[in-house]
Amino acid sequence: MIAAISQPPFIPYGGYFSLINNVDHFIILDDVQFDKRSWQQRNFIRISGNPQLLTIPVITKGKLNQKINEVQIDYKNLDVIKILRTIELNYKKEDFFEEFFIQLKSIFLKKHKFLCELNIDIIEAICFYLDIKTKKYLSSNFKNSDDYTKTELLKHLLSQIKCNQYYTTLGAKDYLGNINFFPNTKIQIKYFNFEDKDKFLQDEEKKRYAFFSVIDSIFKHGEKTKNFLDKNFKILD
User: Fold this and answer.
1) How many CB atoms lie within 10 A of CB 2?
2) Are β-strands 25-28 and 165-169 bridged in parallel, bridged antiparallel, or unpaired?
3) Per residue in 28-65, pLDDT tens?
4) Cα(176)–Cα(189) distance, rounded to whole angstroms?
């Protein structure tokens, strides 16, 4: 059984869903420390052909060490209608805009208290639309320790779901090092790459495309986006 573990970003890029689609179990890491410099509260959409950040403001004052699932959305500084209008104005002419935007809009209008809940709702809606049926878990549902190192936490979570392979990004080597298996386990570590080989894109767009949220592709290509995700996922030797 193959598993992956990742934090829940805001409207993630295609590689996130490509990873989910290529494993049997996916753990959403929701109980580690929140980092404002990460993609938890922001991501790129395409505006006039260029990347533009959409950002969800959050309450951080006096909450330096809060965990991802504790972060509250700052509605005093968030105009939900403006966010929806920005998406609509830039994608409404795309072939599959109406097909998915109604779902996205209904999620934003729920006005979730917590950022994590908003992100997970969007992730689940995209998985449903793309027919990605991978079983998902929240890391907070397992008995974790704040004293674990990153590697120890991953090992603990993976042992709970009894997998024998773990897929992760090349960036994970920064803390995993060059190990091929988690210490004292038979859980093998494999790295993946997500490359842009979308035949729908022009050459000059390709380098920038990886920065866009997956909704950029969904509005343009609908359910065919899943084919793009499958084609561009590669396990590295």
Assistant:
1) 17
2) unpaired
3) 999 999 998 789 999 999 888 788 899 999 999 888 88
4) 9
Give the angle subtended at the CA of 230 by the CAs of 225 and 233, to the nearest 5°: 120
Residue 11 CB contacts under 8 Å (≥ 6 apart), including other chains: 43, 45, 54, 119, 122, 213, 214, 215
Q: What is the pTM of this model?
A: 0.92
- Extract the tokens encoding 30: 């929701």
Bridge partners of 53? Answer: 44
Instruction: Yes or no: say if 16 and 196 are a contact pair by the CB < 8 Å rule.
Output: no
Question: How does pLDDT run across 121-159, given as a tens digit for each residue?
Answer: 999 999 999 999 999 999 999 987 888 899 999 999 999
Q: Which residues face 18 on adjacent strands?
A: none
Pair 229, 21: CB distance under 8 Å: yes
pLDDT at position 25:
98
